[in-house]
Amino acid sequence: MGKLERIIKDKEFILESLHDGISIIDHRGIVVYVNNSNTRITKKDKSYFLGKHVQDVVPDSGMLGVLETGKKLVDITTHVFDATVISNIVPILDGERIIGVISIFRDITEIKQLNDKLEYANTTIKQLYGKLQEVNENKSDLVVGKSQAMREVMKYALKASMVDSNLLIEGESGTGKEVLARFVHKNSPRKDKPFLAVNCASIPFNLLESELFGYEEGAFTGAKKGGHPGFFEMAAGGTLLLDEIGDMDIALQSKILRVIQNKEIIKIGGNKMLPVDVRIIAATHKDLRALVAAGKFREDLYYRLEVIKIFIPPLRERKEDIIYYIDNMLSKMGKKTGRDVRLGEDALKILNNYDYPGNIRELENIIERAVVMDEDGIISKKDLPLYVTEQDPKSSSQLNLQYQDHFPTMEEIEADAIRKAMEKYKNKSKVAETLNISRAALYRKMEKYNIK
What we know:
This protein is of the alpha/beta class.
């Protein structure tokens, strides 16, 4: 085995690991080695090159010139079949004798593609943050604030608005799930078509089905003459928000699944399939995974809905955003009442320390009440509700469990602890956080102890 062959054999593992193409010729100009990246770039099998003179297979490579002069060529642009490449061509020496030449080259086309992808990504990021800044500056219902958590929410919301996939929005009551759904619709290609929202928890099962799918004339007693279109029909071309879908009866869930799969509906009392073109956004304050585990929500529907999933964190976990919500609310109240009302330092401190079990909806209620109660144009402690100003952070950890007639079991203590926490916080996420268990575990324990 010659010197060149030994060098190639010793370094072959490294040469095959490179993304760059490699060609090696011996002192006669015969191609003795090409790596796998070479075949990827040139789209030629190794057998096309090996054992042949470089002039016959790649005449413009520049390797013969280096073999003759012994001078390396760096960053030269050459053509290898249909590919334009940047090459470094270097002589391989045994002492002062040239025993071969190695060419290391990279496809410019690949570099250009990577550069194009990078430019596209940067452009997309600029567009996303441009829209994000626009949302922050415009006093709209959707307030982003400065927290990293809400910036992540908005990043996903803007991405979701660019596609037509189903979207699942999770978050506690009052976090603004419908507002976010409207934002996604407003920034989507469907923005000029209807946006309709139906609350699955507030409409009884038998009525919800007819509201969603509509009904034909005579479908049931009291049915309107001529029938009635449902939400799916009325939202044609637009977006339908199924709010609080976690409260939907499991029998109706199967019908929603069929709509998603087949893009068709059948009205109640009808026998004709009607095509529907509607983007579905679902929202819930419940842990759907826990409901799936408990057999109360269809697993197949869950995965159909959560193609894209956005979780809106509760207000207590992003208190740096509170001031932005307050500013927005005061601005809207000012236009509504014709009064310029500001927030005093003492009130701001209290509002920043409050936990907001009702989230943004509760904050709106507090601010509206404060504006009504205010008499001097500055909201102070006296203008805030007593339950907010008298909140005692220390009392949140107090738990009094008394058993007069017997010594309790661990299960009794656990059940009572959950009941007391539910009475205090009225919010399952806060209860789970306080008891240091997951929401799914809380749901399981509440079902086990029949706690509503």
